[in-house]
Each structure stands twice: as structure tokens, then as C-alpha cells.
């Protein structure tokens, strides 16, 4: 999720497409939050990290 968000964010910024930038930013933030929760010992949906 983090990698997909980063890719979409970069493509959106390079191609100047607002919806890709927005979706990429949201996926990046959600992936980082889920990874932080997994690192503190609260796995979400059975996973500790969301790449």
C-alpha cells in the first residue's frame, strides 16, 4: 500500500493529474499509519506491515 501510494503520488505530480496525487497521498498516509500500528504490536487484519 505504501509503495503503490508513492508510485501514484509521483505519477500524479509528474503528469499534473490531481486525482492521482490525491489517491496516492491517501494510500501513502494510510499505509504508514497501519505500519506504525503494526510496529507497536497491533497487527491489523493479521499483518504487521503494509508495503
TrEMBL record:
The keyword Transmembrane helix is annotated on this UniProt entry: yes
The entry's keywords: Membrane, Transmembrane, Transmembrane helix
Spans traversing the lipid bilayer: 25-45
InterPro entries xref list: DUF6131 (IPR046134)
Protein name in UniProt: DUF3096 domain-containing protein
Amino acid at each position: 500500500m505504501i509503495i503503490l501510494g508513492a508510485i501514484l503520488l509521483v505519477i500524479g505530480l509528474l503528469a499534473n493529474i490531481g486525482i492521482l496525487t490525491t489517491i496516492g497521498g491517501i494510500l501513502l498516509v494510510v499505509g504508514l499509519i497501519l505500519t506504525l500500528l503494526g510496529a507497536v504490536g497491533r497487527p491489523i487484519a493479521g499483518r504487521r506491515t503494509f508495503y
